[in-house]
Amino acid sequence: MDQTATPHAIPSACDFTVFGGTGDLALRKLLPALYLRDLEGQLPADTRIVGVSRAELDDDGYRAEVRAALTTHVAPEDLTDPAVDRLLARLHHLTLDAHEPDEWHRLHALLKDRPDHETAARVFYLAVAPSLFGAICDNLEAIGAVNDAARVVLEKPIGHDVASARAVNDAVGRVFAESQIFRIDHYLGKESVQNLLVTRFANTFLEPMWNSHWVDHVQITVAEELGVGERGGYYDHAGALRDMVQNHLLQLLCLVAMEPPSHIGRETVRDEKLKVLQALKPMTAEGVDHDTVRGRYTAGLVDGVAVPSYADDLGPEGAPGSRTETFVALRTEVQNWRWAGVPFYLRTGKRMDRRASEIVVVFKPPPHAMFPHSEGTTEPNRLHIHIQPDEGMRLHLTAKEPGPGGIRLRPVSLDLSYATTFEQRSPDAYERLLMDVIKGNPTLFMRRDEVEAAWTWVQPILTRWATSPDRPKRYPAGTSGPTAAATLLERDGRSWQESDQ
Length: 501
Fold this sequence. Notes:
Blueprint: E1 13-19, H1 24-39, E2 46-53, H2 59-73, H3 81-90, E3 91-95, H4 105-112, E4 121-126, H5 133-142, E5 150-154, H6 162-173, E6 181-183, H7 191-201, E7 215-223, H8 232-257, H9 268-279, H10 285-291, E8 292-298, E9 300-302, E10 305-307, H11 310-314, E11 327-333, E12 343-349, E13 356-363, E14 375-376, E15 382-388, E16 392-400, E17 408-417, H12 418-422, H13 429-439, H14 448-467, E18 473-476, H15 483-490
Parallel strand pairs: 1-2, 1-4, 2-3, 4-5, 5-6, 7-12, 8-18, 14-17
Antiparallel strand pairs: 7-13, 8-11, 9-10, 11-12, 13-15, 15-16, 16-17
């Protein structure tokens, strides 16, 4: 789907440099995504991929690591020897330390070692800890690598609160112009998330009902079956609110609630998303106590397999007395004309009973019951937007069950599965987003004011939780979270819409 009024062209030459080039993100997501785009012939013909890390690897050693990663993380039917060899031939590796500027001249020499080095697109992907963002950008500026064709990609987290987010943005912004900074949220690259804009704005029957007159409430859920895994050290300093709500869930809320832009362009979508963040009902200390729930998983069963508690998953990495949450549920509102009085419920957690990311728009019941003597049950109309694991949409309606002798009502659904409808592989989110970076299209990336507005809204929750004597509520692994999360909706006369698969 083209994201701009004027399509961005693929440059003729590109140097794609990945800092953290031997890390999990690079080997599991970034390099497989670049391979698959190269397989489709979409990378610029004159593309070089430079992995930068502290590992003592030469080019051949790095190519061996990447070959193994492709074998592990790319579907066998998509692996061909010519395509793998073509990608490996593009690869280079440099051993650099972000805090040792004397070593960086080798990167400068490599970038200049092409006839069109002044015009080739330069992508610097920072798949490293945010604490290194500033030092890397400073070194790139010092060696003269930052020109008009350069762009930098920042992985989350962008800070851990408002002040640190501003510090990170300031450090990067001293070197790169805002138009050159791509803050990535891979959820925005998912096919179903992008299709939400088309669903809303290209279908005349739906948009007139997309407001408080017809929508009862909205639920956004990102549930994971996995625990913290190898991310325990990071996660215990972040927690679910920082790791998921501040970025992924709020971005999904923005796409659901935003006003129609004049067109889907590089700044129009981001302008409208910012307005939603600024319209969120501010959180007070009392509001945090009343409208948020935090939890932490204990030992339990996931798919019939016994799994340990969060504390056991952390092991010695966990901080003594840690109160880190692995689950968050909250209630908020978008205080504007379209959404006045409509609650938005957000929920995310680890070690849940299912893996699912979905948006559920629940519509109000019909204003008048037309079938008083009917049998069967009716339910409010609902639009389920499935983001993962199976991308698609399901519209829940009420229909008459076939047969004579009266009317028997029955809930039914209209289903759209991307896999079966379009009969083609749905590109991974990183495939789409990396190509947008190469083309210089920022539409699906977060702007600085978006990031800081999201942190500003989240900050009172962080502050209240840090000072409250309450600890996260326990929930057994393999369940839908603490009972308090159900109570959050029950007091409004509502309930969570669990998976309808």
